[in-house]
Amino acid sequence: MENQGETLESGFSDTLAGHQVVSNEEWIAARKELLKKEKELTRLSEEMNRQRRELPWELVTKNYVFDTIEGKKSLSDLFGKNSQLFIYHFMFGPDWEEGCPGCSFMADHMDGPNLHLAHHDVSLVAVSRAPLSQILPFKKRMGWQFEWVSSFESEFNYDYHVSFTEEQIEKKEVYYNYEYAIHDSGTESPGSSVFFKDESGAIYHTYSTYARGGDILLGAHNFLDMMPKGRNESTIMDWMRHHDKYEEVKPKPDSCCH
Fold first, then answer.
1. Rounded distance, CA 165 to CA 155, Å?
2. CB burial of residue 238 (10 Å; 0-12, 13-18, 19+)
3. Closest Cα partner for 211 from 171, 164, 251, 161?
4. Residues 99-103: what's their mean pLDDT?
5. What is the distance, to the nearest Å, from the Cα of residue 1 to the centroid of all Cα atoms in its chain?
6. Is 108 within a domain?
7. Strands of the 191-197 sheet, one edge to the other
8. Quick count: other Cβ atoms within 10 Å of Cβ 154?
9. Number of neighbouring beta carbons within 10 Å of residue 206
């Protein structure tokens, strides 16, 4: 066991050199101590989920219309046959050539769960301000199957605080993640919003989260968080790029990713 430990340690990168190597008995003891904290975190997460579901709702009174491959659709139409709707606010501005790399990273995690969500009373839809003529070729390039619609002619993105006018940015009047702050990331930002439709057809906004609030949905991060090197990044997601660009140069730290 000691020889194996010495071999492993000598093969570590500089960032892991000198990491403690112990006997199996010591490793089990340390692991059980961490397990106590993991269980506590699980219980805290369950409590947070409960409180999230108990948040008050707000009635949606505006008639939002989106461009889809099947023509114009209302917000109500996006529910399909389900009573719950999850919308991912995908950063893709009207004058952009392609979607945000960070939002694309999120989108890579959507089709798998959607195979199950669609059968459990949840519809999942991505919404961007880019017109369909830009969205659809990029969606095809990336190989995604989830529904993706355009809010180009709608105030939807502005009302849910993921798009901003140049005037708002210039005047430092950007309201994002529930506060007014200096915003240097352009006119688009990421987020997720949840809606419920009752039997009468009334729609309620039940939850929205922004910035790193969607990190819980990134399965790749959960894998990396278990690895010896963790996420292994200097700034948030500086290593990540469109999944068809991994042979290219890494994005700059000041990319659109939050």
1. 11
2. middle
3. 161
4. 96
5. 42
6. yes
7. 58-59, 203-210, 191-197, 84-89, 122-128, 147-150, 65-68, 71-74
8. 19
9. 17
DSSP 187: S
CATH number assigned to the domain comprising residue 176: 3.40.30.10
DSSP state of 185: S
∠ CA 179-256-225, rounded to 5°: 85
Into how many domains does the chain fold? 2
Q: Is residue 242 part of a domain?
A: no
Of 232, 239, 207, the C-alpha closest to 58 is 207
Is beta strand 147-150 parallel, antiparallel or unpaired with respect to 122-128?
A: parallel
What is residue 95's predicted lDDT score, i.e. its pLDDT?
A: 93
Query: Do 42 and 154 fall into the same domain?
Result: no
Tokens (6 digits) for 35: 């397990």
pLDDT band at residue 111 using 50, 70 and 90 as cut-offs = very high
Q: What is the pTM of this model?
A: 0.88
Sign of CA dihedral 93, 257, 251, 231: negative
Residue with tokens 């017109």: 131
The full length of the chain comes to 258
Domain that holds residue 17: 2-53
Question: CA-to-CA distance for 19 and 22, rounded, in angstroms?
Answer: 10
**Measured CA angle at 66 (ends 61, 70), to 5 deg:** 130
Return the pLDDT at 5: 40
- What tokens does 142 get? 């990336």
Could you give the CA distance from residue 44 to residue 39 in angstroms, rounded to a whole number? Answer: 9
Residues 23 and 73 in one domain: no
